[in-house]
Structures are given as C-alpha cells and as structure tokens.
Amino acid sequence: MLFWVIGLSIYAVSCTALWLVTLRKAKRIKNKLVQYRDTEERSHRLKADEAMQLNQNFQKFVPRQFFDHIYKKGGALELGHADEDNVAILFCDIRGFTSLSEKMTPQELLNFLNSYFLRMNAPIHDNKGFIDKFIGDAIMALFDSPEGSDCDKAQDAIRAAIGLNRALILYNQHRAKSGYSAVSIGIGIHFGPVIIGTVGSDDRMDTTVIGDSVNIAQRLETLKSIYNVDIIVSEQLIAMADHAFVSRTIDWVRVKGRNEPIKLVEVMTHLSDELQQERLDTVDAIQKGLAFRMEGNLREALSVFRAAKKQHPQDPILKQHVTSVEQLILHGVPDDWDGVLQLGNS
C-alpha cells in the first residue's frame, strides 16, 4: 500500500512537473507569437507610413486632382494619357519681376519666390483649385470641382482671384514692415475645354494641360500691363459664373496667336464700395465708345472716352481707351477693320 501511495505521488509530481514545463513552453511560444505579431504590425505600420509620406511628397510634384482625372475613367498613369474636360484656368504673375529680380542675389530671389508662393497657395486650394505648375514667377492653376457644375468651377476661380488680391495686400504690409517695396500682380482667367495628359519619354514624364483655353488665359494675364486692372477675365468665364460678381466689360481685343476676338471683363468685387461704384458709373460710356469704335467712327469714340475720362480721371480703362483711339486716328486702321483692338505684341 505504501509503495502504491509513493508511486502515485511520484507520478503526480512528474505530471505536475511536465505540466509546468509544457506551460512554460506554451508561454514562451505565445510570447514569441505576440512579439512576431507586434513586429509584423510595426513593420506594416512603418511601410504604410512610408507609403503615405511618399504619396504626400509625390503630390507636391503631381497634384492629386491630376490623378483623379486619370483614374475616374479607369485609366493608368502612362505616357500619352489624355483626358478632356471643361475647366477654369487662372494665370497669375508678378509685374515687373525682371527688374525686381535684378536687385537680388540668387538666394534672396529664391527666398522671395517661396515666401510669395506660400501666400498665393491658400486662396487657390481654399477655392477647390490646384496649382498645375509654377512658371518662373507665374502660377497656373486649374479649377475643376469634380462634384460641382461648370458654374461652380468658374465661380471658384473668381473667388480665388479675389483671395489672391487680398493675400497680396497682407503680403505687401509684411514687406513694408521689413523695408521692401510692394509687389504687384496680374491675374487672367478663362473658361473652356482643355486636354489634361502626360508628355515626355519612357524614363521622364510630366503632366501638362494644353489647349486654346490655356493660351487665352495666359494672354489675359499679360494684359495687366495695358489695362492696369487687377483681374481680367473672358466674357465666357463671367457668363459661366452667372454674372455673380461685380464686373464691367472693358474692351474687345484680339490677342497674339488667335483670330477670334475676346470680350474682356474686369472683376471688381474685391475693390472698395466707393471704387466699385465709380467704375460702374463708366459702364455706359465705355459701351458707347466701344460701339463707335466698332463702327469705325473713331472721332466720336474719342470724344466719348475723353468726356468720361474728364469725369473719372483715375479710371485706368478710360486712360487706355483714349490712348488707343488716338493712336488709331494717328496711324489709321486697316481696310478690314472690324473695331476689335489688335494686341499682337501682348
């Protein structure tokens, strides 16, 4: 009996010892599995963070909206891919940039441009636009609100232009405190069809937006030096925006590289109420003067523009019309004159 009890005790101790050993092994295996799982999770998180960081960095060079255009129709990012869309195109650049840059060292110039672009970025993105590219001191932005209508796109672009002018006021205040001169910009906007695609070679691609609409928007921006107003847009754009902004027609022109005339419109919503009203008071005179010019009755046109300029001597549009009609009278007009001002050198 005693031997049986001793044997049973030994067996129980052995089982307990074996159970403890097995338990410890199970714990070690479990700990290793937990460590492996944690390592895998950390690895996945790290890879996900790296991918997200890479994606964010990549979007600084290629806007996310560009990929939206490509993938919305099941396309792939490859050379020669093209997508057509109606968008609002905005160009903005610094007036007198060449003379301004000549006074700076290369590093000062780079710091200035980055400081300027940093402030110009927000009004564009806040109004559902994206910067397609920087061209020297110029900005080319597109407004193509995927969820919005063509009217929304046009209005977004105009709101962005208004925001750019307000941002410039704050920027110039900052420059004045630092002893720097004020910066002036010109903005041109047009609405129309464009081709959004990729160009380049097998080992080097770039995104691009091409089309007549892009050329028109760029030409409109250059007219700041002629008309000396902040925002010049095409009649197509202001009509697409449902005339929701304070504006006035300022001229009919042909720009370089295009035969079809363009009706120019000045957006004035960002101006003070007093200045808006002063410029609105000239609308009838401008329309009347343009009508005479279109008919070829240049002396009547000049009379109208001079009378209006006498009442509103600070209006830049009236100054331009007086000057241009005087030049037309002095040098004569071609036999096929249709009243549209040719701006071949703009």
From TrEMBL:
Membrane spanning stretches:
6-23
Q: Has keyword Transport? A: no
Tell me yes or no: is Transit peptide among this UniProt entry's keywords.
no
Q: Which UniProt keywords apply?
A: Membrane, Transmembrane, Transmembrane helix
Annotated CDD domains: CHD
Q: Which Gene Ontology BP annotations are present? A: cAMP biosynthetic process; intracellular signal transduction
Which GO molecular function, any one, fits this protein according to its record?
adenylate cyclase activity
Q: Boundaries of each Guanylate cyclase domain copy?
A: 88-221
- Taxonomically, the superkingdom here is Bacteria
Please state what the protein is called: Adenylate/guanylate cyclase
Q: Which organism is it from?
A: Glaciecola nitratireducens (strain JCM 12485 / KCTC 12276 / FR1064)
